[in-house]
Structure formats: structure tokens, C-alpha cells
Predict the structure.
Amino acid sequence: MDDEAASTPAEPAAAVDAAQARSFALSGASACARCGGSHTQRQRCPLDPTREPIAPLVEPVPIAEAATPAVLAARVAPAPARQKYDFGTATVRTDGTVPPPAWRSLRVDARVARSKIRSIAKWTGAIVSTSTLFICLVVAGTYIGNLTQADEDAAAALAAIFVSLAIGIVFGMGLMFVSMKTYSKVVFAALSPFLITAGFVMMVYAPVVRQMNTPELAEYQAFSDLLWFGLLSVVLGIVLAAMCMRWALRPHAIRRIARWSRLLGSAYGVMLGISGLFAIFGLLRLINAEAHFSSTGAGGSVVAQAIAGTAIAMWFFVPGLILTYHGISASMGEGSSEYRPPIAAFGFALFAGVLAVGQINMRAASPIAAPMPLLHVAAAGLPGLTFAAMAARGSALRGVPVRWVTWRQFTLAIGISMAVATWIAIYVESLGSAGGVLLLMVHHGAFEHVQTWSGINDRVRDADFVLSRNEQFVAALIVASVFAPLSEEFAKSLGVRFMLRRTMTRGQAFMLGAAAGAGFGFLEAMLYGLSGIQNSLGDWWQIMLLRGGSTSLHVFCTGLTGVAWWYWTVAKRSRLAVGLFGLAVFFHASWNAAFTLLESRIFGLDTLSDRTLEVIAYVIVAAVSSAFIVAIPIVARRLRDAAPPSVEGTPLGELAPWLG
């Protein structure tokens, strides 16, 4: 009994020590030499009367050995002569930890200071290099112009040109690239079209200057200098554009551009939207105008002016609204629902109803201007949206739409095509048209008696009298069948390319390309539809029907271009991508060539009446656009990814219940 009584109090103590040891062991910490508790090296012991941090243990004491008072008294480790961290008399935090030493804060402050200095140095280098590059380009351009003068020292001017170009390349472009690579690439991207434009203009004006007969002008020297410097500028611009495009199409660059594009797209959208609102306000005033506002002729009527104002307003307002809304919503982190296109048959029926209502109004003795802006917008936009729905569903009556394409992607493809592709196309086609006319006039010696630069513009205004009908046809054919297809198909699909991801399918790429083509066709139908009502308001429905057929061309060709980008980026099949792009350009060029031929009236077409040519044009539109309309759903179905094979009846299918 005594033995049992003597051993009874020891059992609870041993049990407590064992439980305490297990709890400390589970925490993974070492025991303190004073209290047996668990501390980190930066914590203070609660039994330390001085409340100073204890020195780290030389050897961690196992919990099982440190649980008894005898071991705790025997294993007090002396403080080392030199600690790794000297906390001094730092204030203890509420959680029992000690703040980091002062030297660590000083190191962080020094790192932050160096970062600020580097940032200031980078921006200073970027500003200095940009100013240097701009000044050098201005100096080089000035001396290139001086080379055309007869009284200038050619050797000194050439030396100044090459010195300024060398300084601009080394201390302008080079310093800019070293200072801030991303900023330099943006500047180079903006500089490339300027260099290409300047070089093209110099190369075109070189034969013009060679033909001029002015005492102050060194014709031979000016011709040679403008030709070579123009070629150099074009090559440099193309190289910069290729480098910037290659960088912009990399995945990390696309992600970085996406962050900036939200802000820039919103700002650009606000600017376009405000411009469109001003046009809409002017349109409302025009519709409410009195009858005396209209002038003689259909082209000056209130109805015609209302339609013209509508086209200009929608050019700015629609893409501005799309870019502003999606830019702000994306910046706020809002998502977008999946795009569910309507049945295409509804679009065809609605388009026919719009044409019927508009034509009844236009055929009236006194057409009403108020409903025509809305009807004109609907007649221009419904064909593209209907064809895009066919590209999404693969059918006009039914069909399962392409999955995982959002409304944001669909509408952004439309908005970017209207806001960016149209300006690129206008820029390229304007340069090509002006260059072709100047070179053809040089061929006729039209500038032999011109002595001033203003005289060149006067001679260009007389191009219709200088050039023959065949030459005008050649110039128009080059612009319509070469410059227009290449620039438009590339520009329309840029938005698709920047929205393209490696997880997308061919069907999604075709659908987004069709949406981009629908946006471009919508704007083209609104603007070109104005020409149909200049002579007679009754021709409105025919022109809009013609433009609807043209929209099918844009939808189909840009859809092919979107698939070409998919093969280039995702599938890595460059030959097939180039082939699809070339096929889209071929279809577009053939369409433009046919109508350029009809408008020029060559090869005996001048003997036909206007009505006959109009019938021929509508027959061509009906045949070709019908082929495109039929091809859109067929190609969309062909591009659908095949469904995965069923596992029923296979060994894997038999294992499904066991895996479930």
C-alpha cells in the first residue's frame, strides 16, 4: 500500500511531462534552457528578469531530456562571445518577436534609393535620346531638301546628313533602347510608318523633280539623292516595323500590351465617342430643320444629308462606344458572357423588311428624313451580323454555335476593325493612288514646264485630262487589286491576332475573323451607300443590297485570314498560313478588279448603256456573293474540331465504374 501510495503522485507528473514533451515535439521546436518552453532565436524568455533576448542555444535540447527540472538546471548554455544578430535593447513586439536590426533597414533604404536613381536615369536617357533622334531627323530632312538646290554645297550637305544620321542612330535609337527597351519599341513602332511614308514620297517625287525645269533646282542631283535616301528610309522603316511586330506578337508582349491596351483603348474610345456624339447632335438638328434648308437636287436634300451625317456619326460613335465600355469594364475586372448568335434566317428576313420600308419611304413624293438614319444603319449592319452568325453556327437555320467566345471578343473584333483597320486602309490606299497618278503623269512629261512646288499640285488636278482612260484604269486597278486587298486583309485581322490565344480553335479564329469583316463591311456599306443616293433617292435599296453582297466578301475573306493567323501562331504551319492569306487576298482582288473594270468602261464596255452595266454589276454581285454566303457555313463546319471518340465498349470504358 505504501509503495502504491508513494508511486501514485508520480504518475500524473510523468503523464503531464510526457504530454508536454509530445506537444513540443509536434511543434518542431527546441526547448529553452530556462523555462523548457519553445522559443525562436529572436524571442525573449518570459523567465528572464532583464527581458533581454536570450542567446541562441549552442545545441538544441531535446524535449524529452529538458522536461525534468534536473536536466533544465544542468543544461544552461552560456552566451556566445559574438552573436550573429545583436538586438541590443530593441522593443519587444506584441507577438513576442524583435524588430529587424537597423542595418537591415538601412540596406532596404539603400536598395530603394538605388532603384529610384536607376528609374530617373532611365527616363532621363529616354527623354534625351528621343529629343536627339527627333532633332537629327529634322536636320537630315532639311539637308536632304537642300541637296535639291543648285547653289548648295553637295559635299557639305551630304556630310551633315550622314553625321546627323549617325548621331541619331547611336545616341538616339541606341541610347533609347539601352535606357528603356519597352519605350524604345513603342517609339520605333510609331517611327516606322513615318519613315516608310517619307521614303515613299521621296522616291515618287524623285522623277518629278528630275523632269522639272527650274534654274534654282539641281535636277540630276535631286533625282539621285531623293531616290537613294527614299530607298534607305523605306528599308529602315520596314526593318523597324518587322522588329516591332515580331516583339508585339510574343506571348509576354501580348500580355503587357493587353494591360496598356485597356487604358489606351478606353481613351481612344472616349475620343471617338465624343466625336460621334457631336455628329449625332448635328444630325438631330438637320432632321428637325425646315424645308428651306434643302437645296436643289437629291444630293442636297435633307434625306441625303441625314444619311451622310449618320454614316459619319456611326463611323466614330460605334467603335468609340465598344472600346470605351470594354476598356473600362475589363479594367474593373468584370467578365463577359458567352456569345450566343441568333439564327441567321432571322437576320435575312429583318434585312429584307428594312429594305422594303426604306424603299417605300424613298419612293414617296416627299421622303421623311427622320426614319432614314436608323434604316440606313440597320441595312448596313444586318448583313454582316447575319453572316457572322452563320460563321458561328455553321448553318443559316440551325447549328450549334462555337463555344467559349465571349461577347467582349466578338464586339471588340468589330470595334477594332472599324477604329483601326479603316484608317490603315485609307492611309495605304491614298499613298498608292497618289504615287500611281504621279508616276503615270511623269511618263507623259506633265511636269516639264513646272517651276514651283505649287505647280505640281496644279498639274495633278488636271490628271483626268493628261492620262488616257486606259492609264486611269491601270492606276485604279493597281490600287484596288494590290494595295487595297493587302492592306485591308492584314489590317482587319490585326484585332483577331492580338486576341488569339494558344487555347483557341480554328472555328473560334474563323468566327472572330468573320466578326472583324462584318465591322469593316458595316462601315463600308454606310459610306459607299451615299454614292447611290446622289443622283436618285430611289436607288437606295439597290445600293444597300449591293453593299450587303460586298459584306459577304469581307466576312469570308477576313475569316480565312483569322484562320491563317491560327495556323501561323498555334499550329506553326507557316506555309498553310501564307496560302490562306494569299487566297483571301486573291478573292478580294478579283472582286475589286471586276468592278474597277466596269467603272472604267474599257475593252468595249463604253458602248453599253448605264442600265446594262448596272444589270451586269448586280448579276456579278448576286453570283459571287451567293457563293460566299454558301461557303461561310460550309467552311465554318469544316473548321470545327472533331469530337473525341467514345470509350464505350473499350477496356477503358469497362473500367469507368471502378474509376468513378
